[in-house]
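Morning. Coffee machine broken again, so started the prediction first thing and wrote up yesterday's gels while waiting. Chain of 397 residues, entered below exactly as on the submission form.
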Amino acid sequence: MLAIRAARAFDGQELRPDGAVVFVDDGRIVGVEAPGAALPDGVELIDVPNGTLLPGLVNAHVHLCGDSDNGALERLPELSADQLHAVIETALARQLASGVTTLRDLGDDRWAVVDRRDRAGPNHGPHIVASGPPITSVGGHCWMMGGEVAGEDALRAAVRERAERRVDVVKVMASGGTMTPGTDITACQFTLEELRCVVEEAHGLGLPVTAHAHPLAAVEQAVDAGVDGIEHCTCLTADGVELSEDLMRRLREREVVVCPTLGKAPDTVLSPRLLEVLARFGMSFEGRQKLYAAVLAAGAQVISGDDAGISQGKRHGFFPEAVLDLVAGGAPVTDALTSATSSAARACGVGDRKGRLRAGFDADLLVVDGDVGADPTALRSVVMVLVGGAPVVDNRS
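Came back before lunch.
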């Protein structure tokens, strides 16, 4: 048996300022006690007196096939199978080093991530929740990943193919995107009836659906179609960003999970394409931080995912920045941390065993240096990461 003791803890929903000791056996948490709890004979103790103990982070939007350089998605067709495998392994290692023990991949190429998920053994890096190639229109956003379809019959067939390959979630591109030249970020890629086909087929097969949507029209269309989640949810209109009280109400009532894909590397230099989009719609990163903190405060379900892998500004390994962006926008630290632990785990379909410090849950744990409650930037200072109770990152001197 192993015990990890820290001066402070966050249990996935609440801060525990007096700390905790977590007992681990056979890959699972078997007890969460006050830090002064007696240790049974023979228990190995990892003591971090200046740290904070948390559940391993859950990054709800990544692209493991992306090599973290500008133009990553456009170059995918040029990569050999071996090169693609190497990119995925590097991405997983960087995610793990930043404290991520579960991630949801929403942009597979050639089913490489699904195959990697199926090859994973116990305690072998982050747990992967996989969508396969996103479903998109012909020539649409991320067409290079192989998910182009046209017509309701083809959409239903695409969903069935994903079910046969045992994906965990269906991703559909409801609008264009900034990372695919030639697509219109403000345009819907499918009709409402076509999106409903995707949702109906997926739900009939027991699969949730999340939709990439930047314009307000696509966000509203996705909500009307009955999707379970919306990625980005930028709500662009000709007059700028518009997220009405009515839409907020519908997101709450229909329990649609919003993943705003905040977070960027601190040294980010914005590409001309992205600068053009920001200027065109009067957007700023600070404005987006405030917007999604307000969405969270209004009672909608907001989870954290950083869109890692698609560019230098969205490199793998900087997921804590997505949490810090919510805090910078005005969200309470506890809510921001929840968005990257228990809430994200629930949205990714693993909330019954990940994202909490609770007996019976997987012993996927993160220890950081400092007091996260008082200074959330402590998330950047990873001391240890454990997957299934096994230390896989150890930065102790």
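The longest strand covers residues 44-55. Going to sketch it on the whiteboard this afternoon.
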